[in-house]
Specification:
The chain is of the alpha/beta class. The protein has 12 helices and 7 strands. A hairpin with a 2-residue loop joins β4 and β5. One of its GO terms (biological process) is regulation of DNA-templated transcription.
Length: about 250
Amino acid sequence: MRVLLVDDHELFRAGLALLIKELFQDAELLHANTLLHGVESAMTENPDIVFLDLELPDGHGCDALARLKDARPSLPVVVLSADERVETVGRCLELRAMGYVPKSSSPEALHAAIVAVLSGGVFLPAASIAGLRRGIDTAGAARESGKAQPTNGGAEPWDAPRLGLTPREYETLAWLVRGLPSKAIASKMGLEDITVRKYISHLLTHFNLRRRTELIVMLADKGITLGTLSDTDPSPDRDSDADGRRRIG
């Protein structure tokens, strides 16, 4: 596992690196102290996951995340920041981050974030999930619908039948969680962009949600992971009939 740490404070990076090595002995740590260096490392060093500070000398706030995701859309990025405001967390999710870890978090939270993201899931602190849910109109109704599944609890990734999805919808969801825009997902799946947009629309309807951000919050809240996908998965779209599907609330 190769972990890229993008933070301009050398002492903080060194401490974080020691902690990650303690949690994951086989981890290889890459360091960058500017956004430019981070983007270059993301493009050339093939990291498996990136931890990104939002306050960098050459890229402040969410601009840093946007630039990194533009350079490597499918690369999992977890924001590591002292800013714990719900508005900032939500903005990072909109910019396709796969997780958010406040710098005040415990080592256990860092471990959980790495495990979740590398398993095709999303990590958000509980306080952020609660705050983000308050801004989702459909969340209360979804929780009260009686259709919610138990959290994953670190078990195997959820498959398409368990989520009530077709194989193509499931694949779209997995790429969407990873942070790819619809055009990049279409390229990965060998489909037209309009087709992928229809799949995304179906997913939002299926989960009774309206936006990708709400979908990410729901997955983080329920601990749903989707595993990893190869860059080319030509699996056909089977079982396209929506009749009898189970909905996850």
